[in-house]
Write a structure and sequence with these properties.
The complex is a heterotrimer of chains A (124), B (469) and C (439). Chain B has 469 residues and is of the alpha/beta class. Chain B is built from 14 helices and ten strands. The longest helix of chain C has 38 residues, at 329-366. Classes of the chains: A alpha+beta (124), B alpha/beta (469), C alpha/beta (439). Chains in contact: A-B, A-C, B-C. The A-C interface holds A 40-41, 46, 59, 61-66 and C 149, 285, 308-311, 315-316, 319.
Amino acid sequence: MEIKTDRVYSASHEWVLFETETTATIGVTDFAQSELGDLVFVNLPQVGDAVTAGQPFADVESVKAVSDVYCPVSGTVSAINEALLSTPQMINENAYDAWFIKVENITDKSPLMDADAYRTLTGE
Amino acid sequence: MNNDLLLSMEKSIPGRGSQVIPALEAPAYPLPETFCRKAPPMLPELAETDVDRHYTALAQRAYGVNCGFYPLGSCTMKYNPAVNEAAARQPGFMGAHPLAPAHAVQGCHAVITELSAALCEIAGMDAFTLQPAAGAQGEFFGMLCVKRYHEARGESHRVRMLVPDSAHGTNPASAAIAGFTVVNVPSRADGLVDTDALRGLLDENTAGMMMTNPNTLGLFEKDILDISRMVHQAGGLMYYDGANLNAILGQARPGDMGFDVTHFNLHKTFSTPHGGGGPGSGPVGVKRALVPYLPTVASLGAKDGLQLKAFHGNFGIMVRALAYIKALGRDALSDVATHAVLNANYLMHRLTNAGYTPAIATRCMHEFVLTLEGIKAETGVSALDVAKSMIDYGMHPPTMYFPLIVHEALMFEPTETETRETLDHVADVMIAILAQTRTDPAAMHTAPHTAVIGRPDDVKAARTPVLHW
Amino acid sequence: MSHYHPHTQADTAAMLATLGLATPDDLFADIPQSVRLRAPLSLPQGLSQMDTLAAMEALAEQNTRYRLTLRGAGCYDHFIPPLVSQLAGKEEFVTAYTPYQAELSQGILQAIFEYQSLICALTGMDASNAGVYDGASAAAEAAVMCRERGRTVTLVSACAHPDTLAVVRTYAYGTGHEVRVVPAADGHTDLAALQAMLTPDIASLYIQQPNYFGQLEDVPALFAAAKAAGVKCILGANPMTLAMLPSGAEVGADIVCGDVQPFGIPMAFGGPSAGFMAATAAMQRKLPGRIAGQTTDAQGRRAFVLTLQAREQHIRREKATSNICTNQAHCALTAGIYLTYLGTRGLTAVAERCLAHAHAFAELLTAIPGVRLRHRGVFFHEFVTELPVPAQAVEAALEAQGVLSGLPLDGGMLWCVTEKASLAQLTRVAEIVREVCAQ
């Protein structure tokens, strides 16, 4: 399972790439996509929505299940990856390119870990 | 062999068709241009013979209770008596207009009155509405009833609806669309509601609790009187999901267990056919305090009440259920539960002896759940593979992957209308399948092999939806 | 008494012995004695099948059987071709469960897919679901589909069927949303009033076509006003009339819904029938309930499955926006058979006969002194007349002749003429009405 060293991770298997102290891009990890299986749809928030660390901000559908995606930071959604809406398989194909949202005005964040810690968490 | 059966639209030859109705006897009425469709709808045009053969071929690619064993857990796929169908086909019923003057539809009113009274007796409730079209609509109405009750008492802050984690998905969905906040109640290791956890979840905002009893593991919630007492003391109402009523028909009544509202599924317990997904009927019974909130019919003049659907509900289904109740009567109705529970236990016993693992190793009610977790770990064969392999033996698979709290679940409900020989045959098939998990697991991953198609690509269907021709 | 559990006493005894149980009662050992039913149910003893059928026939015979029905108002007496009932009655269709096991259910799945295709053809929309309970609940579900943040109020025309309005209100009550009624003017939705009601909190507008009074609404104008205000447009259509009236796509609908009862489904005291729902591609994922889709199997063969299931209650649980599971599949199947059998020309012929005979009948009636049309607009096959005598007098006189009159409505009568009514019958009815009115 691929784990990138350029970003940090949440215990609920989201990755966060901080651009600045208060802006970040968020997605789900390669481990998460492999557990979720073939994804067929993604529900994303709207630009301008407030997101809260530890709370769901999106959900992903496989054929037989729907799973929440939790936000690792608190802030405001500044962009969403609309390509995911029509081609959710991008997440299965490359989870680290298939970002979900960009967040600005970040005021708070969940406990996050570096790549080594996340590798330990996922048992590799 | 090309198994593909062309769509009716693909068989269409413009100009074909049948003369079904007489020609106009009055001048054609010229609609103003603004009310004229630009081009007629493109419907198929087929010879009568081809319409007949098309739908006959489709029927041959379907599988009903009339075809064989159908052990879908929580669905109660019992035999659908022919006499019920004959009753429903009576011209006096089929031709009744829902807004005909009351004196002209006394037979319909009698059906509704008689069926309601019988359901009250079976449920231990004070009144029934037959308006809800299905169990889910019954649940929705039941939830609205609870909401109205609390509002009328000035307690609209009661918004928490407790739902066990073993519940059918419909329960939390129904509570949510009625405006309640769903609170999940955990189950204990023995599969029953965790009453200690429940106690901690009750508060002054509790609206009520939804329960299925026996629950989706096929186990009777023995603590039911304690549970209803606790919920009532907290000011909540108890809702009974009648999906599993077949297990206790004539043996115990929701009304005697402390339930205030209940829905039954006429298409489960009362033998009306499932129709490939409906129509069903989901009548709701209530205790006296909730009678004021029963639904009304606006087109009959009552404009301010709750209403679930137009007119009186799925009347044709009510006729079938009443015929069933009349045919069986009080003794045979309670024998239904006896034989349903006997058949489930007998099949579980045989499967357990053969090496399958029940999710909870205890006596069951009308259904039981196997966990194939061990088989999957040992052989790589999943519950899905086993279910699909059953198709190759000419039987419908059981309910798969439910309840959610059991891994690799297969949920069997044989119902009371199966013979001992059928159950023995099923057990023998399951033994053969279990042996195959060790001898040829690879073949099971691609089962079924004898159906008109192999496993369909569900991911493709969902990612790039093709929803019409 | 009848029963359908097959065990002989010997079977039962042997099976109990296998389980190590002494009596059938032991099967219920897990039910506490405190909730066991000790006395038998207070119901009559069972009947033989012969007596059961006789008892049910006796109930059916308590209903009046009319030779001619001129009442519609949401439930229509159309001709049901025998082939339609015969094919729909095939047991594999009647006794099957929901087609979750696709390999065993290709016939039902293909029939649903064809039904969806037929609904799309009729409505001009991009996607149809497999149906819901009825036309009224379809309208309520359509209103749910249109709600979004900041826009949650549903507008319903006062000219909609009263049951539809009541059901939309009931569903909205559940989720705590508001429904506002757009007033009528001369039996039509009042466009000027609508324009004043199009505030930024409005999610959708529901217009019934033909409306409850049988009148044809100026749907394009109503929907254009709504669209200009960012409001979603729901067309509640009698699908029979769509053979001739503009499709939902032609009038700018986002959702078209209604009841397929006119398509081969008996009136049966108002149920069961099925609600249809069709939507634009942009809204297709919001459609509630089951949807069949086309895919391929492992060998590349065409296959049909239930798809987009992660929207549904059994997966989404409390986050689902609809709780429907069992729908009215067999009624949708019946409607599909009806449409396939009649085809474009057959359906158009039915609609044309309804339209022509209704207008001929209206002329016969309005030739009677004191009988006139209540509304000035164009109607399809239903219309309201004023009467110079109490409506109940007309109802009684026609009933004596085996005719179910139109529906008494605010002193007048809402008539409905289907293709079943011959001109001779309608002429005779008009004569009876003339006699009553002369008294």
